[in-house]
Specification:
- This protein is of the alpha+beta class.
- The protein has helices at about 5-20, 25-40, 45-55, 60, 80-90, 90-95, 110-120, 180-190, 200-205, and strands spanning about 1-5, 100-105, 125-130, 135, 140-145, 155-165, 175-180.
- The model is unreliable at about 200-215 (pLDDT under 50).
């Protein structure tokens, strides 16, 4: 399905909120999903996967234990949304030549939008690496060394984010619409539905229409 970026962001935000993320984190997750979708990258699919993976887990269980040294979760895999928001808070470290290193990161592509916003904040090019993949961004354009490599991997043992030399070759730039597979949209909708309170007899009487008495 071809969707506007506004639709994608709004649906992603409601899904993230339905999955239990705070409003602030849900907004960040939605912005990251929109950013990836604008570059024809699989943000909506990865968001649906990470929401399902972390469903029922507290933020502190999947967020970095410490921002000193290599970032890692207390147990298991580091959430890319939690790590990404922390990366934005630590963007100035990159400007000082201090790479940010993360261990055992789930769905690492979701970290890239946060690196892009760090690049805008610093007015620099930022590079994100995991496995054999390298992605450079100035916040708007994106350079990927090989789209067929591990870009959509579910997990990577190590991820590094650092300042990179400025690129002058052609980059991919954002579009105004994104493509979302019907199955992915439905998975996000499952989470989004949790934000709606179930109807009660009282709410039906207060709502529009015939309410409990239907004389038709």
């Amino acid at each position: 399905m071809n969707r506007s970026l506004n639709e994608i962001e709004a649906h992603a935000k409601r899904a993230a909120r339905g999955a239990g993320l705070s409003w602030g984190m849900a907004e960040e997750a939605a912005r990251a999903t929109r950013w990836l979708a604008s570059h024809d990258l699989s943000g909506p699919a990865l968001l649906s996967d990470i929401l399902a993976k972390n469903d029922g887990l507290a933020h502190k269980q999947v967020a970095p234990v410490s921002l000193d040294g290599e970032w890692r979760a207390p147990v298991g895999e580091l959430c890319p949304l939690a790590a990404g928001t922390a990366l934005n808070d630590c963007a100035d470290r990159l400007a000082k030549g201090q790479p940010v290193k993360m261990a055992n990161v789930s769905h690492p592509l979701l970290v890239v939008p946060f690196a892009a916003w760090a690049a805008i904040h610093l007015n620099e090019h930022v590079q994100i690496r995991w496995q054999n993949l390298r992605i450079d961004t100035d916040g708007v354009g994106v350079w990927v060394n090989d789209l067929k490599s591990e870009i959509n991997t579910n997990q990577t043992a190590a991820l590094t984010c650092q300042i990179a030399r400025k690129r002058t070759d052609a980059a991919t730039h954002p579009r105004f619409r994104g493509t979302v597979a019907p199955g992915v949209w439905e998975k996000l909708d499952t989470f989004a539905q949790r934000t709606f309170a179930p109807a009660t007899a009282a709410s039906r009487l207060l709502g529009a229409g015939a309410g409990a008495a239907d004389n038709d």
